[in-house]
Amino acid sequence: MTAIVSDFSTSHRIPGWLPPVLLLGLAYLVIPFIGTSYLFEAILLPFLALSLAGVGLNILTGYAGQVSLGSAAFLAVGAFAAYNFNLRVEGLPLIGSIILAGLAAAAIGIVFGLPSLRLKGFYLAVSTLAAQFFVQWALTKFSWFSNDSASGVIDAPALSIAGITFNGAVGRYLFSLTVVTLLTFLAYRLVSSQSGRNFIAVRDNETAARIIGVPVLKTKILAFAISSFIIGVAGVLWAFAYLRTVEPAGFNLDRSFQILFIIIIGGLASIRGAFFGAALLVILPLALSRLGSFLLGNVFNSGVLDMSQRIVLGALIILFLILEPDGLVSLWDRIRKRSAAVFGRM
Amino acid sequence: MTIFSKLKVAAIAAGLGLAVALPAAHADEQYFPLQSYRVGPYAAGGTGFFGGFIDYLNLINTRDGGVNGVKLTWSEGETQYEVERGVEVYERLKNNPGVAAWNPLSVGIAYAMIDRITKDKVPLITINHGRTDSTDGRVFPYVFPLLLNPYSETSGIVNYIASKEGGLDNLKGKKIVVLYHGSPYGKETIPIYELLAKKYGFELQQIEVPHPGNEQQAQWLTIRRAKPDYVVLRGWGVMNPVALKSAAKVGFPVDHIVGNVWSNSEEDAIPAGEAAKGYTAITTQASGAEYPVVKEIIKTLYDNGKGNLENKSRIGSVYHNLGIVNGILNVEAIRIAQEKFGKRTLTGDEVRWGFEHLQLDPARVEALGAKGLFHSINVTWDNHEGNGYVTFQQWDGKKWNVVSDWIAPDWALLRPIIEKSAEAYAAEKGIKLRTSEQAEAATN
User: Fold this and answer.
1) Which of B277, B310, B279, B183 is nearest to B237 (CA)?
2) Residue B436 falls within a domain, yes or no?
3) Backbone torsions φ then ψ of B203, nearest 5 degrees
4) What is residue A290's DSSP assignment?
5) Residue A271, domain member (yes or no)
6) Among A36, A37, A38, which would you mutate to test the B interface (most chain B Cβ atoms within 10 Å of its Cβ)?
7) How far B365 CA sits from the closest chain A CA (Å)?
8) What is the pTM of this model?
9) How distant is the Cα of B342 from the closest Cα of chain A, in angstroms?
10) Measured between CB atoms, which of B11, B43, B88 is closest to A42?
11) Quick one: which of A70, A88, A63 has its CA closest to A131?
């Protein structure tokens, strides 16, 4: 598993804090006024939720080196826990439900992270599959989780904090954006702290880490807990802000793979990578699908188009990974360096 | 590398560009956004149903020049029966002008759309499936589980089993297993089976088959141990033939398996081969191509290479005919609404009014060329199902043969349960019950 520690000091002319601040300015001040409802509902809301899940998984897999195939399970735990806290605890504000949901996901994450103390690599990946199947099974089996609703589908409650309701597409977008920004910032601080360095030490060489005094056991459990917390909150965004309805089937193994692909394509051990990867995996299929139905919609039916899009998407991802095995992040950094060099010469 | 990144930027730009570029508005067109699924585990249902639906819309355009001159248009977005994709297609297509109604044919997608379409004031049709309590038009003004909601289906199946046993009294002490699909659709009937079991005194066991259902050994071994008198198959897609084959393997008699309305197609029976011979299933629409409307579709479309089904042998199959019936109901709702609001492109709310006056008696059904294809429908502002009749068909190894009359489910028994559930939903969501005066007014 090759990974790069993100390097924010590649360009000396632009301070490291400037691009994120500019992006946030754009996201908060410009996009809400010019975006269409399609942009919010079909692109940005899933993008934000999946990016956050990617950030969470990247802490575990990218930084701490523990492969997990159970991300969708933690998304589901977050979504269902938030729903139940919101439903069953009188007077609990939404933000309280979200934090408790994250903690619930963290608790489940710790339980399923315990095998990581003995297992490594593929074996650990397989044991995290257990989380994937167990959680989905439990949520389907015990209808208490979905408040005994006939079909097992739950309606997400309205998003409101301190009396302000975020129900329109723009409102839900701003809500998600704020949560994602906040948690991403915390994740960024975490990976550059001592704990973050411990994660990397455990990933790169467990024995060496142990010898220099890194508490391996604690570090692994911490990685599982924090990662699951973030993914759990992403699950709340997915269910409450994006789909506004939840059913366990939506959190299947495919979703876990999707999140894993997001961090592999975006770049392991990079906070930005999760965003690049999510952007690619959310936008590229949609762009292909729309391009396909625009150009060939009259010739082929939607089924044929969908199948060919999968082939194109798969081929693009393989091609991309061959050309840039370190992910979109390193591609981006290379472009930036090169353009800086070109401008530097002028 | 630079070429590649350029390509990617171009692709993204094209995608985003298309998101904003909408087709120009045309006068006198009524548009159907179709969240279809032609690939994935449920493609057989999707291609058949949307094929029939498109064929009927096409027939109306080709034969009649539209509905009173208003041309019908449509476009498709692939959902693979997945909720996220369904929502994406909804967002993609909802801004096209003249949207008449949504027909997602997926309970999961329909659930995700209820809030959205209620805000848009456009009808959402869930023929033969959907959320049962959306039958109550006082709470769900824009949702229509037309012909047969899941509770009516359950009542119809239990009544049919009773008739085979010689009356409802004879159900006492009998044992019925319901094998249901592990999805929102499959679970919808759990409480009503329990209620009917209590009411009629039969023993009940409900067993879930996880989606998509291509492995059922464990479930059928449980059934063999339970030794039920009947198994109700509440399946979908690949789950159905696998169930029939597994039943044969454990030696459960196939003529004691009763399929529900989504386990009743050729695509469910044919792959099971011999194991399906004698299998009975409920339906709201007969299969076969002998009905005048199906014949006209063959003559007008398929003979001219304009039919939607790729495989012509599927013409008149259960899903294809269901799509045609769905087409009839949508088109007639528009026609009825046009009589009130004028022969032009209608708004979603006006089409909603049309659906709420969608009353087709057997004579009108015959005039539409669909006598025997389906019985009748009688939708009102507060009954969004419209009291469809059901019939039972048996598979003889090659085709379905109708083995019962048109049967009425026990609507009077079900209505109070539906109202209670709808009122609970209204209370939870803070919805005020709609009155008939409010239903009569339509915004344009």
Assistant:
1) B183
2) yes
3) -85, 140
4) H
5) no
6) A38
7) 31
8) 0.84
9) 31
10) B88
11) A70
Rg (CA), chain B: 22
Q: Could you tell me if B258 and B323 lie in one domain?
A: no
Q: Nearest chain B residue to A34 by CA: give it.
A: B20
Range of the domain at A22: 18-252
A chain contacts of residue B308, beta-carbon cutoff 8 Å:
301
Give A 50-109 residues with CB within 8 A of chain B. none
Q: What is the CATH number of the domain that holds B45?
A: 3.40.50.2300
Residues of chain A with C-beta less than 8 angstroms from the C-beta of B82: 250
Q: Is the dihedral of CA A279, A284, A289, A292 positive or negative?
A: positive
pLDDT tens for each residue of chain A, 346 residues long: 444 444 444 445 667 778 788 888 888 888 888 888 888 888 899 999 999 999 999 999 999 999 899 999 999 999 999 999 988 888 888 889 999 999 999 999 999 988 888 888 788 888 888 889 899 888 877 878 877 776 667 778 877 777 777 778 888 999 999 999 999 999 999 999 999 999 999 999 989 999 999 999 999 999 999 999 999 999 999 999 998 888 787 888 889 999 998 998 888 888 989 999 999 888 888 888 788 777 776 677 777 777 887 888 888 878 877 888 788 888 888 888 888 777 666 5
- Facing residue for B19 by CB, picked from A36, A306, A334: A36
The answer, yes or no, to whether ipTM is higher than 0.95 is: no
CA distance B77 to chain A (A): 6
Provide, as residue numbers in chain B, all residues whose Cβ is less than 8 Å from the Cβ of A266.
none
Q: Are residues B263 and B123 in the same domain?
A: no
CB contact under 8 A, B38 and A304: yes
Cβ–Cβ gap A293/B87 under 8 Å: no
B230 and B357 in a single domain? The answer is no
Same domain for B377 and B398, yes or no, is no
Map tokens 């990247």 to a residue.
Answer: A58
Determine the Cα–Cα distance for residues B75 and B67; give it in Å rounded to an integer: 18
DSSP string, B375-408: --EE--SSBSS----BEEEEE-SSSEEE-S--B-
